[in-house]
Design goal:
heterodimer, A: alpha/beta, FAD/NAD(P)-binding domain, 6-stranded antiparallel beta sheet, 24 strands, B: mainly alpha, Cytochrome Bc1 Complex, Chain D, domain 2, 3 domains, two-stranded antiparallel sheet, 17 helices, 7 strands, globular
Chain lengths: 588, 412
């Protein structure tokens, strides 16, 4: 039997980037806030001790900071005709766990999506006609515009200390930045990172082909920085232990390095770690949340009443939480009715490795977000009218790491083990670099999330079931962009290059991306979206659902910048609108 | 009726604010006097010993390690039995000024009466007035946990005869009012010497080494005179004020006991008082400049230390030892690094240390522990290196010293 606790103004599920940002904004406004976090407390000096933080076996191979499948996992199938099976070892994506969430183990790449991304269906219809959009795609507008989001992107970038170069300041294109980006009111808080040899060569080759390379916006800080909250962060050392690792020297933006030092000092904030929320409780009407029920690490069950519930967990968990709580109508691909689980999307990537005889690259000098990028083939920056697909990808060279276990570049035809493999590794290790394309993943009517009919988690709740394969549109897109990537590779005249194209079916085994999006998407129509433009549930107005689960489809960018901006949108809406008149902020 | 009472109260408050304290008799229960007492109790950091972390304010229970054994900070709330509610004002003042508690009980100088004796009677009464407003706590504290023979309080009569000079601090007319205020805050209220002045074998202040640094509770409280190498002589008054106010300045971040002091005491003091403290401390010039020579760069300990530093330390503290302001302390030119006694350095490298976090500098960065990774000789080498690089100069650290500090820290 659950023990009922004293009520709080706000209950936050999950203390990662969004939970920390919302917690900080709402406590500043005087609200009494508790964050309930499934995983452990983590802080830099004790959890990411410089002495053992760069342990590739522990963190990158054995995934120490990540969700354990025994805690929870998802079941997976490619299509509705198959029976989904549980993922018992995370591969294609690796969800985080604990305070800081995925913001602990990210690379730090911090984009804004393009203005056209936010009104995707409208924009493509206007430019190419409604018939141009492939029938398999369920892409939608976001219900919010880039112009509305701009100030919130700005707040996140200044909170996190993002290093980059503006490409469009108030409509004026800036040399050296991304000319395809939406207009920004001011430049990044910090200058771009210093480029190493690989990205420099990539940029030269791209420029020689008429493209527009620019430094990737980075949450690995190029300089020491004190953010608007007064928290000081360090300067990136280019050690190359970002993705899958916590940063040991306070130089990768995270809730820990940007927000928590201020938030944890507040008497009106409390974090309860190693406590897993089972469900959001609703009153008899089903239209009002009364709080949450959770289980602590000893197995004791608690009821935490609250006036507002913020669902701030990873995208899968946000969707699962609404389904387990009976909030909203589950999406049914057969009828295309329902909203929860709708428009699950991912990221469509491809890679290319270049091997040289006459050039030395030191992959040990690297960082998660250190890269040169071209956006000439991203989003709708290029004319699709004769191409037979929609969407696009950024192409980049980003030396994220040279970690010795998993960085093993070898030429074509090299055995996968043994003396020849070792010899080839030794020859190639310093003489290679990679390119990648990170492409949009456009939602399809068949791709969705729902509750698995067979498999349950340790609390007896149904696991989340993922039904996903790459839409044919996205494979065509990825092939086209990969061709362009090959053009750049050829211009660099390597001894050889090895292309890895994206093919169907999607496999959950090899790592691709942890950019899992959608399932509780935002929009202007309650029939086709779970939340409104303020991240507020259409069905239960005192519940807000924040994170990449809100994306109606995924763009050719890493999600964190947009996720951070949406957290500020929700905070602002709660403070300036909801508290004054609790109820739906958009009539339905 | 209430409105009228409020108006009278407000008028009284204004009158009190306008009245020069020295001339008129003070209303011991006035808001102004109680508030002054609160400020003074903060400046004197009474809570450091009398408020257990997470416990009721001033209800006691903090264990204080001394070379003679453990003392527990007593309950000083107004509870008549467990606290000091039954004490008269004169008894309270006698405790501060003479180290004699109610009924003639001799206090141990862990209660810094050798410093508080310098406090004005008016300030002592203000603190008393404030303590009267605290929620009474029935928490019973047995302060004296000392082993025989130190547990005999009468010992202190002898000790006082040898070591204790009661009496208020007389202003030095040759110095500015600010300097005199600073000295009063440092010597009387702040009792800085309790940690920063070395002690004789009897535990009394070694006055010849006033504020020149001392080892206590497993840490070294550094020299805070204006010595340019071992003291705060390289800091401007503003830098010193920043440090005391926020816990961090361009070079350093407070941690351990000083971190607690900043968080609980000096960060709540007025800028004028902090400037007075800084003005006084920077005036404490050493008699002679040292001519210390650094350990030679070719010394094997320095060569090994440099390699260890590159691998383990330079990512944050930088190759040049400059650190990053308000995040990673500067090692080059640091007085904490060049102190004669390397206890704090050894301890910080071995066990890590949490930096202070204040509203003005909330980051609270921490040094991680290297105990599992570096052996005693390696810690000694890297400390010898940082103590003798970038124009630093200090004695080499031996593996034996590291072992001693490690063993001491391991035994509570």
């Amino acid at each position: 039997m659950a023990t009922k606790l004293p009520a709080k103004d706000v209950v936050i599920i999950g203390l990662g980037w969004t939970g920390a940002i919302l917690g900080n904004e709402l406590t500043d406004h005087g609200l009494d806030v508790v964050a309930i976090e499934r995983g452990p407390w983590r802080d830099t000096a004790t959890s990411f001790n410089i002495g053992y933080a760069p342990d590739e076996l522990r963190y990158a191979v054995r995934l120490d900071l990540f969700q354990r499948p025994a805690q929870s996992t998802v079941t997976f199938r490619n299509n509705g005709g198959q029976t989904a099976l549980p993922i018992r070892q995370f591969g294609s994506f690796i969800p985080g766990n604990g305070v800081g969430g995925a913001g602990i183990h990210w690379n730090g790449v911090t984009w804004r999506f393009n203005p056209t991304d936010f009104r995707l269906r409208s924009h493509l219809t206007e430019r190419y006609g409604a018939d141009f959009i492939p029938a398999e795609l369920s892409i939608q507008d976001w219900g919010i515009t880039y112009e509305e989001l701009e100030p919130y992107y700005d707040r996140f970038e200044y909170l996190a200390g993002i290093s980059g170069k503006a490409g469009n300041l108030n409509g004026v294109i800036q040399d050296g930045g991304n000319p395809f980006e939406g207009p920004r009111k001011r430049d990044y808080p910090l200058p771009p990172m210093r480029m190493t040899y690989g990205p420099t060569l990539f940029a030269e080759a791209a420029r020689s082909l008429g493209y527009h390379p620019f430094p990737q916006p980075s949450g690995n800080l190029s300089q020491p920085y004190t953010n608007p909250l007064g928290v000081t962060m360090g300067q990136c050392t280019y050690c190359g232990f970002c993705e899958r690792f916590g940063c040991a020297n306070y130089s990768k933006a995270s809730a820990q390095t940007s927000v928590l030092p201020v938030l944890m000092r507040k008497s009106n904030f409390e974090a309860r770690t190693e406590c897993e929320v089972l469900k959001i409780n609703l009153d008899a009407s089903g239209k009002h949340a009364t709080g949450v029920s959770y289980v602590d690490s000893s197995g004791a069950e608690w009821e935490q009443p609250g006036e507002i519930v913020l669902v701030c967990a990873f995208s899968f968990n946000n969707v699962q939480m609404l389904l387990h709580s009976g909030i909203g109508q589950p999406y049914d691909p057969a009828t295309r009715q329902g909203t929860i689980g709708r428009n699950y999307a991912y990221q469509t990537t491809s890679g290319l490795e270049l091997l040289f005889d006459d050039k030395i690259f030191n992959p040990f000098i690297s960082a998660g977000a250190l890269a040169q990028v071209i956006d000439d083939f991203n989003g709708d920056a290029f004319d699709h009218s004769k191409l037979g697909f929609v969407g696009g990808a950024g192409i980049s060279t980003g030396p994220t790491n040279g970690r010795p276990i998993q960085t093993r570049p070898t030429p074509h035809g090299t055995p996968r083990w043994g003396a020849k493999w070792k010899q080839a590794t030794k020859q190639s290790y310093l003489r290679f670099f990679s390119m990648g394309s990170q492409g949009s993943s456009y939602a399809a009517y068949t791709n969705h999330l729902d509750l698995d009919p067979t498999y349950k988690d340790r609390f007896g709740r149904p696991l989340l079931r993922m039904t996903f394969d790459f839409p044919d549109n996205d494979i065509r897109m990825s092939n086209y962009v990969t061709d362009r990537m090959e053009d750049i590779a050829k211009a660099l005249k390597p001894r050889e290059y090895i292309v890895s194209r994206r093919t169907k079916p999607y496999s959950s085994v090899p790592y691709q991306s942890t950019h899992n999006t959608g399932g509780t998407i935002m929009g202007a129509d309650p029939k086709t979206s779970a939340i409104n433009k303020y991240l507020q549930s259409w069905d239960v107005p005192n519940v807000f659902v924040v994170g990449a689960s809100a994306f109606p489809q995924n763009a050719g960018y890493n999600p964190t910048g947009t996720v951070g901006a949406l957290a500020f949108v929700a905070a602002d809406a709660i403070i300036t609108k909801y508290l004054k008149a609790p109820g739906p902020l958009v009539p339905s | 009726m209430n409105k009228l009472a409020g108006a009278i109260g407000t008028a009284a408050l204004f009158a009190a604010l306008l009245a020069p304290c020295a001339v008129r008799a003070v209303d011991l229960q006035s808001y102004e006097f109680v508030e002054r007492g609160r400020y003074l109790a903060t400046a004197a950091d009474c809570a450091a010993c009398h408020t257990k972390p997470g416990g009721a304010p001033f209800a006691g229970g903090v264990a204080i390690q001394t070379p003679f054994g453990t003392l527990i900070g007593p309950n000083i709330t107004p509870d008549p039995d467990a606290g000091i509610g039954a004490w008269s004002d004169d008894e309270f003042v006698a405790a501060l000024h003479d180290g004699i508690g109610r009924g003639g009980v001799r206090l141990y100088p862990a209660m810094p009466y050798p410093a508080y004796t310098k406090m004005t009677r008016q300030d002592a009464l203000a603190i008393r007035a404030y303590l009267r407003t605290i929620q009474p706590s029935s928490n019973q504290v047995d302060a004296n946990q000392l082993p025989f023979p130190f547990d005999i309080r009468f010992d202190m009569a002898v000790w006082n005869a040898l070591n204790f000079k009661p009496g208020r601090l007389e202003p030095d007319p040759s110095q500015s009012a600010e300097w005199n205020r600073g000295r009063y805050l440092v010597d009387a209220l702040g009792h800085c010497g309790t940690c920063h002045t070395p002690k004789t074998w009897l535990g009394a202040d070694k006055n010849s080494a006033y504020l020149q640094g001392a080892t206590l509770q497993g840490w070294f409280a550094p020299n805070i005179t204006a010595d340019e190498r071992k003291g705060i002589g390289r800091w401007t008054i503003d830098e010193l004020v920043n440090y005391l106010k926020t816990g961090a300045n361009r070079d350093a971040i407070a941690s351990a006991g000083m971190g607690e002091e900043v968080v609980h005491s000096s960060s709540h003091m007025t800028d004028a008082d902090l400037k007075a403290i800084a003005t006084y401390l920077v005036s404490l010039k050493p008699a002679v400049a040292d001519n210390l020579q650094p350990v030679a760069a070719a010394d094997p300990r320095m060569v090994a230390g440099q390699a260890i530093y590159k691998d383990n330390c330079s990512g944050c503290h930088t190759d040049a030892g400059t650190g990053i302001p308000r995040l990673f302390p500067r090692l080059a030119g640091s007085h904490a690094v060049q102190s004669d006694d390397p206890t704090t350095l050894i301890r910080t490298v071995m066990f890590g240390s949490q930096g202070a976090a204040t509203a003005a500098a909330p980051t609270g960065p921490a040094m991680p522990s290297f105990a599992w990774r570096l052996n005693d000789a390696q810690v000694a080498a890297v400390l010898t290196y940082i103590r003798n690089s970038w124009s630093n100069a200090a004695s080499a650290v031996s593996a034996g010293q590291v072992g001693t500090v490690k063993a001491a820290a391991a035994t509570p």
